[in-house]
Amino acid sequence: MKARFSVQFLLLLISVTALGYIGWVVSDQIVYRQRAQPIPFRHDMHAGKRKIACVYCHRGVYQGYQAGVPSVRECWACHRAMPKLLKDPKKYPGVTTLQQYWEAKKPIVWWKVYQLPDHVHFQHETHVARGIACTVCHGDVAAMPVVRQAHNPTMGWCVTCHRQQHAPVSCSTCHY
Fold first, then answer.
1. pTM of the full predicted structure?
2. Do 119 and 112 form a contact (C-beta atoms < 8 A)?
3. Is 122 part of a structural domain of the chain?
């Protein structure tokens, strides 16, 4: 009876360990998976060709945790002033979709490209105040037709950068 209990306990322990390992391996893929956005927003056109600064649309970087995205009203304020974009919906399908959101008075629900776990607190404000360029974490977004993660923001990746920048690396810097 005792040997049978030991074997069952050992099998349970192996199963739990294996499931934990599998969860750890695939967690980055689950948390950081890329999703299609509701509008095919072209960062290469806006930030690249048009040279619109990141902070023009992502004003939240000055206020804390999330960079944020502009409202439909803010997007439409620029795009309604460009009639050639509205005349050719096949060439500019994103603008047509934006117009539909505007007319329906519905917000655009964008998917976050960088979704950090709940126990991590990243402050854009702190990084911007220290003069760290957006491209350090986000890559050359101005060259990306579709924004994707330039880096997988793991704890190791962030700590390496903090050490290179002589920034704090204590646990309470990001976990509080």
1. 0.73
2. no
3. yes
> 């349970």: which residue's tokens?
12
pLDDT of residue 69: 92
Per-residue tokens: 29: 């893929």
Q: What single letter denotes the amino acid at residue 115? A: Q
The identity of residue 110, as a single letter, is W
Phi-psi region of 131 (alpha: psi -120 to 50; beta: other; left: phi over 0): left
CA angle 25, 127, 145 (to 5 degrees): 65
CA 113, CA 147: separation in Å to the nearest integer?
7
Instruction: Answer yes or no: is 114 within a domain.
Output: yes
Residue 166 — left, alpha, or beta (φ > 0 → left; ψ -120 to 50 → alpha)? left
Domain housing 134 = 35-69+110-170
